[in-house]
């Protein structure tokens, strides 16, 4: 089984799996079901920690009649099999205790509610349209180290930024503003997943955190918000993120934003507040900052 991840890497995943083609008695399209063993899931989790969410798969089998792709390599199956669940797959979110800048000052994320006005980098004060959370136990973090939070220590991004240690999920993107970003991407500002910045001094996997509660915030559009005074993203309504929040939360979001339900099938993607880097280029960006001893944020 070859899996292509969100950063563009295509990786062979060792492990066993079996498949069945289900023909509904009532008619309709056939469904392909794949069951994976634990070795496959463990290996997949390891690669996800490096490359991010799975985007597509290439699966097939060999018989006397030749080789047959199971899904034509279109990748739809992996998304529904692995990410379309309530398992809490990695998704951009803040840890409990994060201070978010609002119209009434810095407020802990767990105290925020729908309708609260949040300071954004582009559009002033914007109301929260949806907010959700999920608590992960110590056992879950041990079993799935790829969802362990990333700690961005005080001042690790730039002068006084963040203003205190910041805990975010590995996929949560933070704003990088630098001349290095300008040379690499043609823009001074880019959003980079926290896990791709761990080579930078002061940014690390929070191994000492034994359990965590993650919070997601959704606005009318993808926004840059201020978390512990650092510029970071709100929930991006791309298909991977929506599949990762869980079925119940996803239905709440679709009730608020019905246009999102069918957008993925039409091949549409939402606008992002800033360009989004892939895993490979983000790691290159981090290494260049490290070698040149340059901060990730210069004054805007």
UniProtKB/TrEMBL annotation:
Give the signal peptide as a residue range, or say none if absent.
none
Please give the PROSITE patterns that the UniProt record associates with this protein.
Answer: INTEIN_N_TER
Xref: Gene3D superfamilies: Hedgehog/Intein (Hint) domain
Tell me the ranges covered by the Hedgehog/Intein (Hint) domain, including all copies: 92-238
Pfam families assigned to the protein according to its UniProt record, in alphabetical order:
Hint_2
Known SUPFAM superfamilies for this protein? Hedgehog/intein (Hint) domain
Q: What is this protein called?
A: Hint domain-containing protein
